[in-house]
Amino acid sequence: MESKIIQRYVIFGIIMFFGLVIGCMTGCPYYSVYQQKMEGEAELAKANYSKQVQVQEAKAKMESAQYNAAADTIRAKGVAISNRIIGLSLQHNEAYLHWLWIDQLEKNQNAVFYVPTENNMPLMLNSTQAKGTIKTDSTAKK
After folding, report:
1. Which of 9, 88, 111, 123 gives 115 a disulfide partner, CB atoms 3.0 to 4.6 angstroms apart?
2. CA distance 56 to 68
3. Domain chopping of the chain, boundaries
């Protein structure tokens, strides 16, 4: 009786083994198709996410460009107003312009100036020569 039970277990084991082998042989192609389907869906999801990221980055750049354009417009309006105020204040203020010119000569020691003369021969002066000439001219006008 024991040998019949052992024999049944052996036969059952062999049937299970062959059933498992046959199941794997038929199931592997289906699993392969399933796995490829899942990989395809994962790649599609990744591509959609990448597209959304690029769209959001483009929108952010566009919004940034709009704000930069608005800031440049505001800055240009401010510069235009400042230029108008400065222009109006300098219209009848030649003494200030003369002082500003002398001040710039003192700050820039390497400047070279072209001074036209009466016989159309250029006279080139560096800043130290020009400073002496200006001081002489300004004292001569007084």
Report:
1. 123
2. 18
3. 94-142
